[in-house]
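Reviewer 2 asked us to include a model.

Predict the structure of this chain.
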Amino acid sequence: MSEYTTKDFVDAIASGDNVRSKDLLLDVLGSKIIDELETKKVEVASTMFNPDPPTKSPTDPKDEGESNEDV
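Predicted model (structure tokens):
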């Protein structure tokens, strides 16, 4: 998405161009955020209307402490 890379950002810092480095940082981070949001959007959309809810495993360690057999 971004035409800039982290190398461009590092080069701007090395050259002392703080204004450009700030703009490059925001551009690179924004691009990475958008990519991750797109990935998450696909993941959520694929599970949103799933009619089969995930089931617990019968050997789930959380369920072991809830047994009333000892009472």
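The chain has a mean pLDDT of 80. Residues 6-50 form one domain. We have added this to the supplementary material.
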